[in-house]
Design goal:
20% of the residues lie in helices and 29% in strands. The chain is of the alpha/beta class. It has a single domain, classed as Ribonuclease Z/Hydroxyacylglutathione hydrolase-like (Metallo-beta-lactamase, Chain A, 4-Layer Sandwich), CATH 3.60.15.10. The strands form two sheets. An eight-stranded mixed β-sheet has the order 6-5-4-3-2-1-14-15. A seven-stranded mixed β-sheet has the order 7-8-9-10-11-12-13. α5 packs across α6.
Length: 263
């Protein structure tokens, strides 16, 4: 199983960090979690085409997490051998179908794929939910950000587990979802001294990781204010496990619960 950080930033334009997106590869399955601006370019840089993406998962509907969906669908209609013919499964919280239908009203035929290509699944935004694929079981819980914010936990047949919070403030659901995970990919928007509602700081992300007893923590979703701060030191106030600060195109492999950085 491999994880590639495609976007470690936010809505703020940056030459260093794209908006949010994480690629998870489990065997032949290629899962994309969120897709802010620049995701498709980062996919190509990671050696993956949009036609290879089998599943899309959205943590919530803010533009820095969904902004490239319309472009992704439009590009999937490109003719001849590049045209998408394999099924695409999209998962998000309740309310996503209405969002998707509004996109179709705006763009019409330009983003409408062939019938039977797109399957959409809505997960509960008021409590726990669960879905099962051949490659993984997926649990979701609401996060403390918007009414339709959810986090995801992937549990593979060998019990290896990855958790992706999306945007959230500190909440018990984040701890519950991440409990004893092999890898927690957690938002960390601003330094401790700049805390805002609905987002985490390094020490709060560390608190979640510590309370959940996760083996490895990757901090991501950095606003520019994080770039001049020792984010790792702030996180270490609360967490002493494996720790990485995400950069775009950082590649991580997990084998038997052990994490390693790939070149």
């Amino acid at each position: 199983m491999k994880v590639t950080i495609l976007g470690s930033g936010t809505c703020v334009p940056s030459l260093r960090r794209n908006s949010c997106s994480v690629l998870v590869e489990i065997g032949e399955a290629k899962l994309l979690f969120d897709m802010g601006a620049g995701t498709m370019r980062r996919l190509l840089e990671a050696g993956v085409t949009i036609g290879q993406i089998s599943h899309l998962f959205f943590s919530h509907l803010h533009p820095d997490h969904t902004g490239e969906l319309a472009s992704f669908l439009f590009a999937s209609k490109y003719p001849n051998e590049r045209r998408r013919r394999s099924r695409l499964r999209i998962t998000a919280a309740e309310g996503f179908m209405a969002f998707y239908e509004r996109l179709e009203k705006v763009y019409g035929q330009w983003i409408e794929l062939e019938e039977g290509i797109v399957d959409i699944f809505e997960m509960k935004s008021s409590g726990p939910d669960f879905m099962q694929f051949d490659f993984s079981n997926i649990d979701t819980l609401p996060m403390e950000h918007t009414e339709s914010s959810i986090g995801y936990r992937l549990t593979m047949p060998d019990n290896t587990s990855i958790v992706y919070t999306g945007d959230t403030d500190y909440c018990k659901n984040a701890v519950r979802l991440a409990m004893k995970a092999d890898l927690l990919i957690c938002e960390c928007s601003l330094p401790d001294e700049m805390k805002v509602p609905g987002h985490l700081t390094p020490s709060l992300a560390g608190r979640i990781a510590s309370e959940a007893q996760v083996k490895n923590l990757v901090l991501t979703h950095f606003y520019p204010e994080c770039d001049g701060v020792d984010i790792e030191a702030q996180c270490r106030k609360r967490y002493d496990g494996g720790l990485l600060c995400a950069e775009d195109l950082m590649r991580i492999e997990i084998v038997n619960g052990c994490l390693s950085l790939l070149e």
